[in-house]
Amino acid sequence: MLRLHRVAPSAEVWAERAQYDDRLIFHTEAWLKFVAEAQRAEPVLARVTSGGSTVGHFTGLVSKRFGLKILGSPMAGWTTSYVGFTLDEGVVRRDALEALMPFAFGELGCAHLEIRDRGLTEDDLGGLGLKWAAAPTAVIDLRPSEAELFGAMAGACRRNIRKAERSGVVVEEVNVGDPTFALDFYDQLRDVFAKQNLVPTYSIERVRQLIRHVGSSGQLLLLRARDNSGTCIATAVLPWYHRTMYFWGGASWREHQHLRPNETLIWHAMRWARERGVTEFDFVGGNAYKAKYGTVEVPVPWARRSRSPLVANLRDAAQQGFALKQRAVARLSGARSS
């Protein structure tokens, strides 16, 4: 039987967690500091034990909503991806998930739990009182040669990358200390959302927090695309760690999209990561447009459980309210600018 035991963050604990082969950037100290600050949440680290021996670790954060404690690993809207467990080879992930229930609702006293673990499948979730939604991600195996990766892209995608090169689009690797990058990215992001009559789901401060915490760890690639006049026309934010690079965000000015800077940024990031021994590019989501890069879809369910139906209803109402607020803010912004 597996059990979870909460531990205080320490150099020893971080070093121990960094030994697991299934570790992700979302389990690291730098990333948790970013999420904790952005969400005003408290990190929760726990050892997973079997018969007194450590066989893995759990990562999450506790926050409060409606006066109730919530354990997110992660929660929707946190602009972070899968968290969950790092486990020794051979440890059954469903058993670890089952052990999480008394830890979350008993020891931590939480009223609601959400988890998205890269190694969990829908078959692991049955019989545990969980509800879940399919939340696949699109990934690219970076181990083939550069020529093979380029050839695996859709023809239109390859043509767009070549067009950007012929048009004089240049990709710039940005120092994390550049004070103007967050503003460039966020202004372009607002333009992207405005196309759908929406506003971004987070503020520019979220971008600055990410750069401040994760950038200092050396695990963040920031990219700008400039046209032949030197104007910044697109940007991308790409954390990376261990064997995976992640597409956290990308944006571009609509008036310059005919130059195809977005495809060029992704292609640059893929090559940059491959040269450094990274073997996977993860788009952190499964939108259809990503298939043009030669992706494979990987299922990663998003599961949740509440202590009572009332708490579950409050969670759903909060999610719906956020979507309505986003549309209302967009309408107000449009009215003010007209």
Write the layout of secondary structure elements.
Blueprint: E1 2-7, H1 11-17, H2 29-39, E2 42-50, E3 53-65, E4 68-73, E5 84-87, H3 93-107, E6 112-115, E7 131-133, E8 137-141, H4 146-152, H5 155-166, E9 170-174, H6 181-194, H7 204-215, E10 220-226, E11 232-241, E12 244-246, E13 249-252, H8 261-275, E14 280-282, E15 296-298, E16 302-306, H9 309-337
Parallel strand pairs: 4-6, 12-14
Antiparallel strand pairs: 1-2, 2-3, 3-4, 3-5, 6-16, 7-16, 8-14, 8-15, 9-10, 10-11, 11-12, 11-13
- Major sheet: size, sense and barrel closure? 8 strands, mixed
The SS-based structural class is: alpha+beta
Reading the helices and strands in chain order gives EHHEEEEHEEEHHEHHEEEEHEEEH
Helix content: 25-40%
Which regions are unreliable across 5 or more consecutive residues at pLDDT < 50?
332-338
Task: Report strand %.
Answer: 25-35%
CATH architectural name of the largest domain = 3-Layer(aba) Sandwich
For the record, the CATH class of the largest domain is: Alpha Beta
N-C termini distance:
63 Å
What count of domains describes the coordinates? 2
